[in-house]
Structure formats: C-alpha cells, structure tokens
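Dear colleagues,

I hope this message finds you well. In preparation for our joint manuscript, I am sending the Mechanosensitive ion channel (Gemella morbillorum) sequence together with its predicted structure, so that both groups work from identical material. I would be grateful if you could confirm receipt.
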Amino acid sequence: MNFINEKILKIFNNVDLWIKLLEKTLLIIAIIIVATIGVKILNKIIDYIMTTRDNANKKFNIKFNEKRSETLLKLVKSAVRYTVYFIAFFQILAIVGINTTSIVASAGIASVAIGFGAQNLVKDIISGFFIILEGQFDVGDNVKIYNQAAFIAEGSVLSLGLRSTKIRSKGGEIYFIPNGTINQVINYSLTYNLAICEFPINIETTIEDLENEVQSILDFANNNDAYKSYLYKHDKLRLDAIDKIEDNIAYITIVGKAKAGKNSSIETMLRRDFYNVFKDRLKGKDEK
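The corresponding structure tokens are as follows:
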C-alpha cells in the first residue's frame, strides 16, 4: 500500500511530467481549434465559389440545376471537413506518442494494392465528380462527347452518375460511357441554338419590295404560336443579312434564337412558309 502511495506522490510531484502533459494538452486543443477554424474558412470559400458560379449562370441565362448545386455544395463541404479532421486526428496521435508512420505505411500498401486493381474505377469516379461539379451537362441535355478528339457518342443524356453516363442517340441506341473516357463535351442545351436559313429569291421589282415581303413572313412567324413555342425566350426571327445579289437573285439569311434542340424545327417551318410564298421565285432549294 505504501508502495502505491509513493508512486502516486511521485507522479504528483513530477513537475516535468505535468509540464509535458500541459504542453501536449495545449497542442491538442490548438490543433482542434485550428482545424475547426480552418473548416469554417474553407466552407466560406466554397460557399463564395458556388454562389458566384450560380449567379453567373443566372446572369447569362445558362441552365443549371439548383438541387444539384446544393448536393454538390454539401458533398464538397463534407469532403473538406473529413479531410481536415483526418489530418488533425493524425497530428493528435503523433502528439500523444502513437507511431503514425506505421499506420500510414500500412494504409499506403493497401491503397497501392487496391489502386492497381481499381485505377480505372477511381479515374471514372473522379472524372464523374468534376463533370457534376462543373455542370458540364445534366440529364436531358443534348450533347456530343469526345475522347482526345475521337468521337464517342451524340444524343440525349439519360442518366449521369459518378462512374458512368448513359446517352441515347437519335437512332435509339443506348451508350454506356465510363466518365474517365469523357475528354471533351459539346453541350447544345446550355442556352440556345441558332436557327439559320438562307434563301436565294428572284427580285421581281426592287430589293426594298422583296425585303417587305420577307418581313411580312417574319411578322407572321413571330406572332405564330407554333414558332413561339420553339423560339428562345422572347426572341424573334429577323432578316440578318442580304449576303449577295447576283443575276437578279438576292441571297437572304434569316436568323433567330431557338430553344435547345429546336432550331431544326424552326428551320423546317421557315422553309415551308418561304416555299409557299416564293415557290416560283426560289432558285432551287435553300442552301441551309
């Protein structure tokens, strides 16, 4: 009993021991405080970046998914929080005297072994994360996908996951594309497509009269519900240019902003209406 009491008294009287314990305790508290503050600062930076991106999308009328943005915000914040606390945890282990080198080495060997077997999977997941983070495309978008300038697929996005993307082509084929192979993306659905038609029309009287006839067709189109359903926002079809006049033939270009993927529908209706009015004066078929 006396032996135990002596040991306890010795510990209580060991000033160096208490100083070391106090130092380690203060270091641990400091690490926790720094980690907590660091997480809050990083969260503020992430909020600023995501808010700036969303505001820019709204300003330039670029389509984006608010729910996806919220999900990404939570995902990025969680990843940052766990990374910071993981580093802080290992620092605390080192302070209390636990050898973290062996733990890291063991984890490293396991990671290398797993990495060799699943490097393509990891690449796909990382690529998928950045596709979603950057908002390159979303479900329902019309896209064309390349890998190092080599064409892969074109069509409508059916699903977008962390590992792969599913696309349906115009012919109905379904493509399952690993995200790691997606190198370049053309997205036709972010804002609008231009509907462009060129018509070579014979000038019967004057160029001014021809312009008035063309404007009458455009006025009809711009007030027609069928056209309006395909036009982007409140845009209108307009006579963009008279490209050239040759052998009494005026080559006129009609341009308008169409909703994503609807430019061909507007062009088809324009060709029909121009043919009905100018069928005896068109030089062959329009060149668009």
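For the figure legend, we might mention the following. The longest strand covers residues 150-160. The two ends are 103 Å apart (CA to CA).

With kind regards,
E.M.
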